[in-house]
Amino acid sequence: MTGAGGWIVGLLSAAVAVAHVVICALALGVLPGNRKPSTAMAWLILILAVPFLGFVAFLFFGSTSVGRTRRAWQRDVNARVLDAVATRAPADGPSPGEHDGRDAPVGATAAEVDGLARLNCHLSALPMVEGNEVEVLPDYLGSIEAMRVAVAGAQRFVHVEFYIAAWDEVTDGFFTELVAAAARGVEVRLLFDHLGTRAVPGYKDFLTRLEGTGVAWAPMLPIGLRKGQVRRPDLRNHRKVVVVDGHVGFIGSQNLIEPGYDDEGNHRRGLTYVELVVRLSGPVVRQLAVVFATDWVAETGEELAHTLGETAAEPGSARRPETVAGVACQVVPSGPGFVTENNLRLFNSMLYSARASVSVTSPYFVPDETLLYAMTTAAQRGVHVELFVSAVADQFMVFHAQRSYYQALLEAGVRIWLYPEPYVLHAKFFTVDDALAVVGSSNMDYRSFALNYECVVLASSPELVTRLRVVQDDYRRLSTELTAEEWSRRGWRAAYVDNLMRLTAALQ
Q: Can you give the residue ranges of the PLD phosphodiesterase domain (predicted)?
């Protein structure tokens, strides 16, 4: 090509080359700022390899922030929460109802339990409180029925928050009770993640059924350019919380949907999700109410201060025989509204405090460097560490990223148990010694630490740990142990895919 056309092509080529150099130079100086080295390196590799595509991907997915306004609002909410719950932080000494470290269970000193409580209160403003009752609900249908029964007895308000919600044959009874509660004058509010729930077949029908029922509802983290709702598109509110009258609460891994997740592909494969939920009563329920209230006001602007009063005893019922009484509990919210990765700091602290045993159940175990070191260090200093994961994949990229860590875990002495097909072990909890337990919505992966709004409850109770170990014993009985010898025989193609997906896991 000659003449003007050749000159234009040459100019465009030079411009592209200059832009290439500028993008790469900026990436080298900008990406490492306020990011973990592994995350920054993953983005750098992508941008240096394919500068323009990598740059566009970074614009959409490079930031975990929900915006200065929302983060400032979260800090303000934390300050107001301290006043709303009428308590002081543990650093100022225990207030009435707070955990003071006395009667700490075997395997955890008073100082260690108090240290965890101080950490969590410093990060999320909620203290550890005594005098709670906890019931473990490992049965999928049983937990939905327990929530339905609680809603049927509601007199003042019902607050429901789930990542995925669907009105199907399994959840119909629960939603029917929500509608009935609203009809008798109970304040009923429902939050669901905008994208998580939107992906379920029948989403529009779901919204249509909610209209006119008296149930107030709102999607969480919606994206709408016309409304100025612009953020990284894959940020999620992954919490699963139910609060009834401030007396009864539920938290765990389970979504509000049938156990195949209304997914045709899952049904063809026969995949069924295995979950774990805990039913709570006592002062800690007030903290779940606070978490819901902060999410509700963020999405609707409606304040719910009238639902955050002192938690009275559960009315009209004696202690349920399945419950564990006298449990010290603390709710720990986390997510992009916080900059401190509250759940990751708690998990690491618990792992380093372990003396005899650690048992982790996480469907998506993709640790950052700190969590991997905490886990392997515990095993290397003689703690019995075990990890329960699924043998079958329901998410290709995460499943293979998770597998890339198995060799390091096995070499450190961590025992890995593979829960059999066609089940997806989706429960999220772990125990430390005979002392501590965490149950909630948080996985142990990059997404749950930085991108998802999560919520867990920390509990200090030997009896509760015993109840959870019964569930873990059942998992172990059904599972197959992955040995180092077996893992070493996997093919190079599988190893290549695992390592490639490990790189993508850090692209935050």
A: 233-260, 421-448
